[in-house]
Amino acid sequence: MQDLNKVNATQLFYFWKNFSIGLLVMIVTLVLSKILPFYFSPIVGLVAAAFLYTLLYNNRVSILSTCMVVPYSIFYCVIVYSFVSIILNVVDIWNIISIPKELSFFNYPYIPALILDPVCLFTLLVFYLRRNRLTICIDCKVSKGLSMERGKLGEIISAESRLQLVNMIWLFAVLSVIMWVYYLIWYYQNAIVNGKDWYVFVWLNVIAIILDEIYFAARYYNIYLDLKDSGEIITEEELNDMTTKTYIRYYVICGNNIFLNNHEADPFVENRFVIDTPFVTKRNVNGMTTAEVLGIIQRMCGIKSGSLKFFFGRKMELSKHRVLRYFYYLDGDVDNYPDMNVNGEWVNFEEVKIVYNEMPQLMARPLLIDLSRLITIVLTQKLFDSRGYRKLKLKSYQPTISLTEVRDGDYDFQDDKWIRISMYNSDTRGFQWRKWFNKLSMMTGSKSGSKKRKRGGC
Question: In the predicted model, is pLDDT for residue 261 greater than 90?
Answer without folding.
Answer: yes
